Amino acid sequence: MFLFDDLDLHTSMFHSIHNGTILFVPTQTQTPNPNLNLMLHPYLTPLVTRASFRSLTMSLLHSNPNPIKTRIRGVVFDMDGTLTVPVIDFPAMYKAVLGKDQYFKIIASSPSGIDILHHIEQWSPDKQQKAYEIIADFEQQGLDRLQIMPGAADLCGFLNSRNIRGLITRNVKSAVDLFHEKFGMSFSPALSREFRPYKPDPAPLLHICSTWGVEPNEVVMIGDSLKDDVACGKRAGAVTCLLDETGRYDSPKYANVEHKPDYKVSSLSQFHSLLESNFDLTP
Q1: Mean pLDDT computed over 38-46
Q2: In what order do the strands lie in the sheet with 22-24?
Q3: Whole-number mean pLDDT of the chain?
Q4: Annotated catalytic, 78?
Q5: Catalytic choice (5, 6, 8, 78)
Q6: Of the listed 80, 115, 229, 244, which one is catalytic?
Q7: What dihedral angle (degrees, nearest 10) is formed by the CA atoms of 44, 47, 52, 57?
């Protein structure tokens, strides 16, 4: 049984508390609100302060065995490093494209990572062509060693009967086609870097939401990149989840990045559990 004094009360918060009786002591200036499911009692003590009220309320909310789940109508995946095992040596590719000196200069000022495609777009056509050839070579090496991420098949099987799912990658369309063909999974829409502007711009995710006829806040965006996947999702207004297998984003250098994920998991199996426990996936 709990007793509260003259507090800044929120009706919706009390409707979520099912266990325990809440007692409210009105002051002379307060008029009891008949919409609040409260039991008025002017005599019992001790009173609860604002700070302890917030702490107690949150504790009660989190202990609720049947919390209200957020409705999610679709999941959008990154491909490389999320649905597939990361095999491309991105630092080596960036150094080959930018040169070592420029690479280290950029990485020092951009803790969340390098947007190599953005840099290339500022170059002359001849220099761009050479850069894209280098990238294509690294990507082809990655395709030759393409492997499905552990947990991806089970996760997609789980989503088959519940949700629509899409894919956004900065890789090329031929890589997406090979992924679909090799692993027998279907994502629609599946947007590659031929779709402009590509992530971290929110345009591809907003395009998918429009195609599905859903709002961005009804979609979860999951990927392994803060600068691309999380930024894209956040800018679009979606729920975001960062896949961080190795814990590299726990480093202090990522503490002040602009866009932080709503959730962070270390595997697709953990993401699977997160979806089941935190979201309503009813079609």
Answers
A1: 38
A2: 2-4, 22-24, 39-40
A3: 81
A4: yes
A5: 78
A6: 80
A7: 40
